Amino acid sequence: MFRAPVDGVFQTPLELGMRIVPDQLLGRMNDLSIRSEIGGILRGLIRTGTRVKAGTKLGDIDPREKSEYLNTISDKARAIGGSVLEGIMAEFNQ
Questions:
Q1: Does the pLDDT value for residue 66 go beyond 80?
Q2: Which residues pair with 2 in a beta bridge?
Q3: Cα–Cα distance for residue pair 92/76, rounded to 1 Å
Q4: At a CB cut-off of 8 Å and minimum separation 6, what does 56 contact?
Q5: Residue 81 domain boundaries
Q6: 85 band by pLDDT with thresholds 50, 70 and 90
Q7: How do residues 46-59 score in pLDDT, each as one tens digit?
Q8: What's the pTM value of the predicted model, to 2 decimals?
Q9: Which of 48, 52, 58, 73 is the most exposed place for a label (fewest CB within 10 A)?
Q10: CA-CA distance, 15 to 27, in Å (whole number)?
Q11: 43, 62 in Cβ contact below 8 A?
Q12: Least confident of 11-25, 39-53, 67-81
């Protein structure tokens, strides 16, 4: 995951599914370069030209390097969704 270092407009030439290497340029905000800390597949990315606040999540790099994971729900998202469904069912199935 990488985040905005400052308030500003995020600019990137990258697209989902691209292979990323450590220290690769991911994008720019104002005059600051944003570089990758790890390598992997770019799995999430905020749209270029989006105005964001400092600390906003800009994207995600999946170190497993399997591009087929772009078309699946992550384990974490599946667990959260399942928990929400259980809560709804507990509330309304009395």
A1: no
A2: 59
A3: 25
A4: 3, 4, 46
A5: 2-92
A6: very high
A7: 999 999 999 999 99
A8: 0.74
A9: 73
A10: 11
A11: yes
A12: 67-81
| CATH label of the domain that carries residue 56 | 2.40.50.100
Domain total in the chain: 1
Q: How many other CB atoms sit within 10 Å of the CB of residue 58? A: 20
* Cβ contacts of 62 within 8 Å, gap of 6 or more: 40, 41, 42, 43, 69
Question: Tokens 């292979």 appear where?
Answer: 19
The per-residue pLDDT for 42 is: 93
33-45 per-position pLDDT tens digit:
999 999 999 988 9
Distance between CA 82 and CA 50 in Å, rounded?
31
Give the position of tokens 């729900």. Answer: 73
Among 24, 16, 22, 11, which Cα is nearest to 67's? 16
50 SS3 class: strand
pLDDT at residue 80 in the model: 94
